[in-house]
Amino acid sequence: MTCHVVSLPSRSPEDTLRIGYVLGSVLEKPPLLISLIGELGVGKTVFVKGFARALGLSMDSITSPTFVIANEYELTTSLRLIHADLYRIESRTELENAGFLDWIGSGAITLVEWGDRVAEALPEDHLKVVFSRGKDENEREIRVSATGCISSLVIEKSRSELTIQV
Ligand SMILES: Nc1ncnc2c1ncn2[C@@H]1O[C@H](COP(=O)(O)OP(=O)(O)OP(=O)(O)O)[C@@H](O)[C@H]1O
Ligand SMILES: [Mg+2]
Question: pTM for this one?
Answer without folding.
Answer: 0.96
